[in-house]
């Protein structure tokens, strides 16, 4: 099983989702690969946002080795599931999908806790305060559901 997390810059939300999911995969000894990507090249090659790294560090998760990369069409071949953070990411991925099989792989990650509601993980980049902490809490819950689904397969 291969899972790709997608946001806009691939420095805030999707790197956190990747780190949280990898941590759970390890804990549960699952045969799952996890990666993340974005659609905006502004931060390409950069480390995750330091606020996201600091938030995850509190929970014992180190994502400092991650580097921002762009989504590419081959990701549709590589990954079984593509989880997006918000409506813009969803539109971005769907706009480059080549066929129905590609489109079927794409889902809002928060649909794992709020099925069918297409809720957004708010972009914490420009905000202050507890934005990153709230992102962590949402992604942690959603990844728990994904893990439970994988364990019962
Ligand atoms: P992300 O947040 O999509 O969660 O990585 C963003 C980070 C940077 C920018 C946009 C979103 N930016 O345009 O620089």
Q: What is the total domain count? A: 1
Order of helices and strands: EHEHHEHHEH
Number of strands: 4
CATH topological fold name: Rossmann fold
The biggest sheet amounts to:
4 strands, parallel
Rounded to an integer in angstroms, the radius of gyration calculated over CA atoms is 14 Å
Write out the strand line-up for the largest beta sheet, numbering strands in chain order. 2-1-3-4
What can you tell me about this protein's structure?
The protein has 153 residues and is an alpha/beta fold. It has one domain: 3-Layer(aba) Sandwich (Rossmann fold). The protein is 42% helix and 11% strand. It has a 4-stranded parallel sheet with strand order 2-1-3-4, with helices on both faces. Strand 1, helix 1 (13-27) and strand 2 form a beta-alpha-beta unit. The model has no long low-confidence stretch (mean pLDDT 97). The site of 4-nitrophenyl phosphate has 13 residues, from loops. 4-nitrophenyl phosphate binds at residues 7-13, 38, 40, 42-43, 123, 125.
């Amino acid at each position: 099983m291969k899972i790709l997390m997608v946001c806009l810059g691939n420095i805030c939300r999707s790197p956190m989702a990747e780190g949280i999911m990898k941590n759970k995969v390890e804990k549960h000894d699952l045969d799952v690969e996890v990666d993340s990507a974005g659609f905006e090249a502004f931060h390409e090659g950069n480390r995750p946002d330091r606020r996201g790294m600091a938030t995850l560090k509190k929970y014992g998760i180190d994502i400092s080795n991650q580097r921002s990369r762009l989504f590419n069409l081959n990701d549709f071949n590589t990954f079984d599931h593509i989880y997006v953070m918000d409506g813009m990411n969803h539109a971005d991925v769907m706009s480059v999908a080549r066929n129905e099989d590609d489109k079927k792989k794409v889902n809002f990650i928060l649909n794992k806790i709020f099925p069918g509601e297409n809720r957004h993980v708010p972009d914490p980049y420009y905000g202050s305060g507890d934005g990153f902490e709230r992102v962590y809490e949402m992604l942690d819950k959603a990844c728990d559901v994904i893990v439970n689904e994988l364990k019962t397969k």
